[in-house]
Every structure is written in C-alpha cells, then in structure tokens.
Model the fold of this input.
Amino acid sequence: MSLERAVAALGLGLATALGAAAVAGAVGRSAEPVVVQIDIRYSHFAPDTVTVPAGRPITFVVVNNDPIDHEWIVGDEALHERHRTGTEPVHNARPTEISIDALHERRTTVTFASPGTLTFICHLPGHEAYGMVGTLTVTP
Done:
C-alpha cells in the first residue's frame, strides 16, 4: 500500500471514529433525564401544565409543601376513573403513580413513548374536586 493510500485510510478511519463519537455523545445527552419539578402548595400543583418530549426520560421531582399527604397520578381518563373508584391506599409500584407524604419530596422517572395529552390528579378524598389537577403534554 502506498503512503498516500495509508494516510487516506487513516484519515477516513479517524473521521469515522470521530463521527461515531459525536453521534454517541449526542445520543448520550438525549438519554439524560429532563428534570421537572412540581410543587404542591395549598392542595394545588404548580405548575399545573407541563410539556415534555416523547421518548426521553423525565425525572419528576414532586415536592409536597402541605402538612397533609397527597398523590400524583398521571394517565388518561380511563386510568383516572379507575382511581376515583379504587381502594389503593398508597402508590409506589408504578412510576406514574406516587404517594407523597406531608412535607416530603418524591422523585420518579418516566419515559413517555408517544405524544399526547395526559392528566395528573391527586385522588385523595376531595382533592380533585378542590382543583388538584394538571395537564401533561407529551410532544414528538
């Protein structure tokens, strides 16, 4: 192999490696969770409207500033209807359903696969009627 061809092959290999590293770095950055904080104060969520990207991990930090317990349940209308009539006293098994003790913080990480609009609600007695409701929009 001539010296020129060897240099060209080395340059092509280096360019390919650098390109792959750049793509891997971009993928690694997009895989890092987006952190969204939701505060609970006076039995209301703030913010009560949240927008997140589909396919990316989202770490929700839900901070309960109230002296009473709350829950944060994300889903469609069918899921919320089940919770309105359900008897599950504590939520910790699913990342989209958490209980937050009074004056505590909970973290949960969720990746929403597809775009759409969901609702987050506290289903403890009277809390939804009082206004403990929010909207989660998942964008493409």
